[in-house]
C-alpha cells in the first residue's frame, strides 16, 4: 500500500490527511520513516497504534495547534506592513516612470513578497539589511531577487522606503558603519500621556472600588462617548494656560487606552448599589428626551453634581493625608461594614456541594476601621447576634481608639471620622452625641464626623475588603478561628455596652440633621462645647444654638445582651455541617462545629450563659481614654511677649476713614 493509502487508514477522512500534509511539510518528510518503525513493530503494538480513535485524536490535536499559530510580529511592524502593501497597485503604475525600466520584470506578487520580508523585520534588522544592500551595489545599482539590478529610485519604490531613511543610512553605510546606532525609543505622546493622567484622576474621584474583586466601577448607565466628550471639553479649557496641555487623543485611541491601561475600570451593568437621587433623576430625564438642547443641559447638571461629590472626596483625602503627614496631632479613621456570603462559615473555595442550602451557613458580618495615620485595619467579626446600629458603631470606635492609644502611647488632639451615609448606623443623634461626649470628657479637643454623598461612598476601606475577598477565594476557612486568622488576626466582637440607652436621657431634641455632610465638635474660648455643621466642605461652618448634650451621663452603660440570637437557625446549620462532614480537612474541624453549635444552643436558651457570653472582652474604655492627649510643647517660655503682640496686630481689622475734602484757598501771587 502507498504512503498516502496508509495515512488514509490512520486518519478519519482523506480530507484531513491531505490538509494535514499540506500544513506540516516537515512531518510529511519524516512520516514514511515513522510508518516503517510502526510496520516493523510487533503485531500487537501495531494494532494498538493503528487504532483509529487513538491516532485520530493525536492528528486532530496537531491540526488544531497548527491552526492556532500566528506569526509573532510586533504591532508597529504590522501597521507599517499594511501601509506598505496598501498602495502596491499604485506603485506598479509608477514603475514605468523610470527611463531605464528597472522594474519591468517585477510582478505584483514579487513586490508584495519583498515588502513583506522587509517590513516584518525589526528596525535594527531593516537597517542592517539595507546597509548590506548598499555595500553589494555595483555601479550605483542595487541587486534584488534573481540578480536583477535596479536604480536607487526604483529600489526605494520597490520596498516603499522614504527619503529620510534612505539617505540617513546610505551615508552611514558609506562611512563604514554596519549596524544601526542607538535609537531613542519613541516615548508616549504628550496627548496620550495626558489622556492616561485624566483617566487616572477620573477613576480616582468617580469610580467605586468593589470590595470583592477590586474592580473600579463607574456609575450605572455611564457612557464611554460621554466620558470622551467630557475629556475633550476639559482639555479645551486648558488652552488658556498651555497649548500642549490641551492636546487630545482621538476617540479610538481613548477607548484603546481605557482597555489596555485601565482594565479594572468598568461600568456597572446593573444598579446593584444604592444610588443618589440626583443621579437617578437626571439619568431618567436623559432617557426620556431626544432634544439636543435639553440633553446638553442635563449633562451639564450631571457634571456639576459629579464635581460636587468629587470635591467632598478631595476633602476626605485632605484629612486623610493630614493624619499621615502629622500623626502627632491628627487621627483619621474610616469605618464601614462588609456583608458578603464569602465570609459565611464554613467557607470552602470553589462551588457548593450539590444539595447544600446556601442559607444554612453561619452568617457573619465584618466591621472594619481603617486608621490612616497608623496604616492599620482593625476588623471585628460577629455572627449577626448584635443589631448593626449606632451601638455597634460607637463601641467599635472606642475599641479602635483604645488600640491606637496602646500603639502610640497618646491620643491626638483632633479626630476625623469618615462614615457611611446611613441613618441607622452613623447619621443619628446617638453618634452625634457620642462625638460631643468625646470632646466634653477631654478625650479629643476636636471631633469631625463627615459623610460622602449617598451612592458615592465606596472608598479606600473597600480596597482593603477587596484584598480580604481575594484571600477567601484561595483559602478555606472551615471554622471561626481559621476565619479570624485568615483576616489578619481579626477579633470576634464581644463585650458591647448599651451606649444608646446611656446617652438618650442626656440628649437634646435634634431635627434636620440628615442633610449636612459635616459635623464638628470643639470647645470655645470659655471651654464650652459647641456643635457646628455645614452642608458641604465649601460652605462656612454654622453654629447651633444648643449643644446636643444638655448634661454628661453618669456612671457607665449597662452590658448589651445580644438581641438577635433567636434569628440564628442552629438546627439548619447543624444539618449543613453533617452533610459536609467529609469536606472538612480533618475530624478536628467537624468536632469543633459540633461543640460550637451546642454552645450556641446553650447561649440561646440559658440567660446566665448569654450574660457570660456578652461579658467576654467587656471593658468600659471611656475612663481609660480620658486626658491621654499628647502634651503640647511649651516652646513659648523664653520668647518675649511683645513679639506675640506684634503677630496679633497683623490680624487686626483696621478701619479706613474717608471724609470730604475741603476746598483749598488759592494763594495770590504777590505783585513784584
TrEMBL record:
This is Uncharacterized protein LOC111107837 isoform X2. Pfam families: DUF7869 (PF25273). Residues 356-537 form the DUF7869 domain. It comes from Crassostrea virginica (Eastern oyster).
